[in-house]
């Protein structure tokens, strides 16, 4: 299971700032691999380059140099429709601010990726299935403005999962949630990861969220500093302690 | 500090302000331009001699329409301004600024913007009318002498109307902003209408809307019955009817479409949701756009049809093109060049101011007169029986009553008399005034030279033809100007509407892109959404115009003649504008992040 990589990033570099402006190097020479079905967390201080890295991997931005391969395909070379289709078919996204369309109902929001791919016949059944498994089937006819933060987050999750992507990206998905809602979201992700074998890459700055991952990558000043892997048999609480210790030494 | 903040946010969105500002300036420039003609009384009087009531009517109608449209236009412009500012103001209030200070700031901002735009508009207006004065000379002919690019009353009017309206807008904004809850100001763009209308309500709206439209159309088809109230009634009923119809039809159409399987395909669901989301807002805008569309198209159609009707309208004025008393040899040889349809020759004797005709000659050659109907095109030539002395007297008085400085009296008696000087009079009717214009003009000039004073001399249909030509070219100019003004306002209203929606749309389209929507699909979604704003008003607007043209059948012989020319030109402009706006909109909402 772990011998195929979904993501292979090599020597990623990102420099911000236009020609005349002051340059800022947000990422310098980052290489990483994510195996199929893995659950990876990216941690680091504010401004360390986590979002930047995620944007590169998720094809939202292009690296200044370096390559990103997803499911064996070099996405830095993809353009236009090929890129759009690739996103629609292979990837799912959950953002910190949920990013639901406020003028669509919850059901429409969830089914958007299927609509975009023209898989209209499957919509009804898929939406019902996923909504049931995420416990949001009573909300399907409402609008985002009528939902709580945690509910919206679960809807975003449902939307990200409906087309059964190879990999799910999340940027601080639990950032705006209270600890209870955050826990249920993370347990949900864990369940998805283990049941559907969807690889997950999660950016987070808090140790609690990170403790749900199998592997954690620490970033500092645009470089990968350290890696932690949860050993088989290690409980989540133990792993959590380990992360806290690591953060303590890492931040100094 | 507050002023600094306010100013910095203006600087941040200078493009939108520029748009708003230039729209307002152009609108006031057009208003000024129109007023240079409408408030120039010497120009009006010069044209107004013959048909003064009509031209007065048309001009005041134009003025009222323009004022009304300006009102609607400023309303849209103001809501665009509000939509740009209310988040900022909400933020100021949240940060603890006193409402009174905020109110003053809003008031000042609106007034400053308005006053600056108005003044600039007048300057542009003067420049425009100078540039246009060549065109004006061509159109207005003799009357152009009285046309002045810099016209003080027009300036006064523009200032009064615009500053007055801006004063109202500023006060309105102040009240709106200081009374609304802060949360509403901050989240203004996220407000939405989730309500589903009941079928009964929709049905009632549909029926009332249709009834209002029928009333409006009926009134426009009978302008002689409702006289000066026609326009007022039509404007009110048509606006109301359009609004209700749009409301009922769009809402039920959307509710129906959303249930169809196609709604799930691609971005269809998204586009439908966008429309449904904005439907309350859209019905108002669509109504405004429809009315402007109808008036612009109507004005241009009427304007382009005016010159085609001159011949007809002159014919209605008299059965004969010219009357010639004691034709000279030159005139007789000129008459030979005409293609004549009718020719009558009578003799009379002149005793002092009395012109004495014998009845007998009208039995042999019956004189004709024009029998008018309801509309100008609806007339017949009627032969006058020689026994009908009073009608004969009336007809002859028309042609011969005025003789320069004296007034003649027509006498018709059984026997001819040999006392007094003997004269001959010739009545000719050609087969076309325009076709024979050159020769007719020469003959008429010789005829005029026989009199010392020619101001009130009426020689027949030809005289009317000359007068109406001048009058109608004035009207044509005005109609075109009005049409272009309406079109310009229509254009900038659409622009405001579409652009003020774009701010809320940017994140939506951005998200769709992130979810993996193809570029082409995004573009076609934008195009489709905008096309609704263009197509629906166009359909109803064309129907309004088709009925509205009937209104002009009192001054135009066949308002429906060659409709496709103005409609085609207008359609092309409209389509080009659609393309333009949809490209602009795509540029705004589909800004590229990746793929640089
Ligand atoms: N578009 C941009 N232009 C210029 N600099 C940028 C841009 N985006 C990010 N940066 C800079 O790059 C660095 C990394 O930013 P990034 O958003 O990746 O941080 P982060 O690790 O996600 O932080 P946080 O935890 O606060 O979200 C920061 O110093 C930021 O100022
Ligand atoms: Mg971040």
From TrEMBL, chain A:
Listed under GO cellular component are:
membrane protein complex
Q: What is this protein called?
A: ABC transporter ATP-binding protein
Q: Which organism is it from?
A: Ligilactobacillus ubinensis
Q: Which UniProt keywords apply?
A: Amino-acid transport, ATP-binding, Nucleotide-binding, Transport
Task: Say which family it is in.
Answer: Belongs to the ABC transporter superfamily.
A biological process (GO) of this protein is: amino acid transport
Pfam families, alphabetized: ABC_tran (PF00005)
What InterPro entries does the entry give?
AAA+_ATPase, ABC_transporter-like_ATP-bd, MacB-like_ATP-bd, P-loop_NTPase
From TrEMBL, chain B:
- The UniProt record lists the ABC3 transporter permease C-terminal domain at 61-173
Q: Report the membrane topology from the UniProt record.
A: Multi-pass membrane protein
What are the transmembrane regions?
17-34, 54-77, 105-130, 150-170, 200-219, 231-258, 279-300, 477-499, 530-557, 563-585
> Please, which domain of life does this record's source organism belong to?
Bacteria
Q: Which InterPro entries match?
A: ABC-4_Integral_Memb_Prot, ABC3_permease_C, ABC_permease_BceB-typ
Where mainly found?
Answer: membrane
Keyword list (alphabetical) reads:
Cell membrane, Membrane, Transmembrane, Transmembrane helix, Transport
- Example of a GO biological process term: transmembrane transport
| UniProt subcellular location | Cell membrane
Q: Name one GO cellular component term.
A: plasma membrane
Q: Does the keyword Aminoacyl-tRNA synthetase apply?
A: no
Q: Which family does it belong to?
A: Belongs to the ABC-4 integral membrane protein family.
Q: What is this protein called?
A: ABC transporter permease
Q: Which organism is it from?
A: Ligilactobacillus ubinensis
């Amino acid at each position: 299971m772990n011998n195929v990589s979904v993501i292979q990033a090599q020597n990623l570099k990102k420099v911000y700032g236009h020609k005349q402006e002051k340059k800022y190097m947000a990422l310098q020479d980052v290489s990483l691999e994510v195996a199929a079905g893995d659950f990876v967390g990216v941690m680091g201080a504010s401004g360390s380059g986590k979002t930047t890295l995620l944007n590169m991997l998720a094809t939202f931005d292009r690296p200044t140099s370096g390559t990103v391969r997803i499911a064996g395909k070099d996405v830095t070379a993809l353009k236009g429709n090929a890129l759009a289709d690739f996103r629609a078919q292979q990837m799912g996204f959950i953002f910190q601010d949920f990013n639901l369309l406020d003028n669509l109902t919850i059901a429409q929001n969830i089914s958007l990726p299927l609509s975009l791919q023209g898989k209209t016949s499957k919509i009804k059944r898929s939406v019902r299935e996923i909504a049931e498994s995420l416990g949001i089937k009573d909300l399907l006819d409402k609008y985002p403005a009528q939902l709580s933060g945690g509910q919206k987050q679960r809807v975003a999750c449902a939307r990200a999962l409906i087309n059964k992507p190879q990999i799910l990206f999340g940027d601080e998905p639990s950032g705006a949630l209270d600890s209870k809602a955050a826990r249920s979201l993370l347990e949900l992700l864990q369940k998805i990861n283990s049941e559907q074998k969807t690889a997950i890459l999660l950016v987070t700055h808090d140790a609690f969220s990170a403790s749900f991952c199998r592997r954690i990558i620490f970033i500092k000043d645009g470089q990968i500093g350290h890696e932690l892997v949860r050993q088989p048999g290690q409980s989540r609480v133990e792993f959590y302690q380990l992360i806290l210790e690591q953060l303590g030494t890492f931040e100094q | 500090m507050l002023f600094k903040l306010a100013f910095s946010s203006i600087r941040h969105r200078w493009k939108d302000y520029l748009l708003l500002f230039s729209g307002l300036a152009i609108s006031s420039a057009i208003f000024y331009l129109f007023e240079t003609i409408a408030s120039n009384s010497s120009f009006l009087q010069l044209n107004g001699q013959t048909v003064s009531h009509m031209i007065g009517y048309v001009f005041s109608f134009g003025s009222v329409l323009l004022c009304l449209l300006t009102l609607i236009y400023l309303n849209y412009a103001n809501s665009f301004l509000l939509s740009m500012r209310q988040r900022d103001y909400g933020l100021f209030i949240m940060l603890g600024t006193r409402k009174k200070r905020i109110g003053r700031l809003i008031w000042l901002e609106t007034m400053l913007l308005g006053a600056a735009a108005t003044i600039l508009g007048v300057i542009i207006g003067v420049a425009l009318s100078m540039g246009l004065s060549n065109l004006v000379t061509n159109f207005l002919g003799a009357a152009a002498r009285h046309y002045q690019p810099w016209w003080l009353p027009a300036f006064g009017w523009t200032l009064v109307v615009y500053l007055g309206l801006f004063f109202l807008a500023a006060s309105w904004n102040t009240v709106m902003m200081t009374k609304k809850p802060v949360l509403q100001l901050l989240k203004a763009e996220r407000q939405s209408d989730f309500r589903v209308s009941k079928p009964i309500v929709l049905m009632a709206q549909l029926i009332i809307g249709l009834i209002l439209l029928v009333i409006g159309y009926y009134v426009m088809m009978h302008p002689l019955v409702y006289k000066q109230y026609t326009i007022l009634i039509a404007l009110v009923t048509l606006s109301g009817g359009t609004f209700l119809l749009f409301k009922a039809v769009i809402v039920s159409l959307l509710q129906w479409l959303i249930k169809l399987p196609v709604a799930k395909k691609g971005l269809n669901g998204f586009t439908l949701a966008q429309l449904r989301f904005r439907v309350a807002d859209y019905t108002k805008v669509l109504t405004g756009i429809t009315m402007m569309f109808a008036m612009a198209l109507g004005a241009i159609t009427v304007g382009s049809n005016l010159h085609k009707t001159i011949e007809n309208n002159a014919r209605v004025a008299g059965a004969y093109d010219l009357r010639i008393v004691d034709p000279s040899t030159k005139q007789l040889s000129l008459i030979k060049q005409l293609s004549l349809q009718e020719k009558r020759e009578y003799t009379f004797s002149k005793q002092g101011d009395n012109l004495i005709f014998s009845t007998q000659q009208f039995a042999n050659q019956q004189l004709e007169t024009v029998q008018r109907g309801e509309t100008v095109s609806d007339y017949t030539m009627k032969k006058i029986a020689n026994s009908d002395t009073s009608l004969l007297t009336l007809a002859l008085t028309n042609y011969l009553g005025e003789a320069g400085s004296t007034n003649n009296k027509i006498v018709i008696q059984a026997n001819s008399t040999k006392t007094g000087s003997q004269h001959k009079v010739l009545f000719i009717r050609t087969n076309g005034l325009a076709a024979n214009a050159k020769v007719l003009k020469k003959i008429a000039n010789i005829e005029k030279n026989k009199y010392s004073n020619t101001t009130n001399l009426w020689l027949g249909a030809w005289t009317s033809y000359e007068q109406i030509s001048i009058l109608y070219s004035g009207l044509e100019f005005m109609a075109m100007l009005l049409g272009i003004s309406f079109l310009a306002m229509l254009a900038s209203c659409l622009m405001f509407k579409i652009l003020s929606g774009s701010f809320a749309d940017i994140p939506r389209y951005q998200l769709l892109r992130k979810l993996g929507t193809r570029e082409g699909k995004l573009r076609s979604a934008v195009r489709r959404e905008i096309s609704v704003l263009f197509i629906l008003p166009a359909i109803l607007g064309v129907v309004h115009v088709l009925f509205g043209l009937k209104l002009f059948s009192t001054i135009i012989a066949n308002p429906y003649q060659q409709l496709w020319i103005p409609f085609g030109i207008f359609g092309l402009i409209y389509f080009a504008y659609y393309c333009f706006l949809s490209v602009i909109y795509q540029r705004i909402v589909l800004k590229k992040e990746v793929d640089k």
